[in-house]
Amino acid sequence: MKLATEPSWMPAPEYGRGLRGLGINLVVRDVSAALVFQREVLGAEIIHDDPDFAALRGHGAEWMLHADHTYSNHPLGGSLGGGLARGIGAELRLYGRDPDEAEAKARELGFEVLAGALDKPHGLREASIIDQDGYLWVPGVALP
Asked: From CA 96, how far away is CA 22, in angstroms rounded?
């Protein structure tokens, strides 16, 4: 069921045909609420958003958000209710986002910081932050 009342910025089939490489689509409870984390903590550019869907870009990557209600006829639809945890076992890594800035913004906005920004032995400085829907984001930059 769609809630958007305005026409989309681009027909869905046209957008879909243009996607390449690895695609990330996060199913979220509320697109508008999710955009606060995406914009403020991750520094994402919002390409398009409406109550059903958002397309985002940042740090060389593109990803999408779909509201729970758009998955009513999807195979995952039945698993989205209640207090089920989302994203368990997945790390969403956003290379190029300063982890110190992301951590500070996350703390300011009340998001859970699992691990503050640290230099890691694999050559990255990164933080681990949980968004409003329980997804684990790991912003990071290469160490000099």
From this structure: 17
